[in-house]
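Supplementary Text 2. Reproducibility record for the structural model of the 76-residue chain.

All settings were left at their defaults, and a single model was retained for analysis rather than an ensemble. We include the record here because the model underlies the residue-level annotations in Supplementary Table 4.
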Amino acid sequence: MQTAIDERKLKQFFREALMEILKEKKNIFHDIVTESMHDIVMEAMEDIALSRAIQEGEGSGTASKKEVFDILEGRA
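Retained model, structure tokens:
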């Protein structure tokens, strides 16, 4: 009789361990997908902003290299 109880406890232990492993894998997969989606959205936003800046720049005059660096370095 003792053996049957131990087998049931062992089966329950393995079920719980397997469920925990599956839960952790699900969380890892979720984290990977979430992080990847965040990266994709951020890249898309950067591309849109760059595209808009280029479009705005096409309609403006030219600037010298010095003028550009003055703006970038906060001297403008």
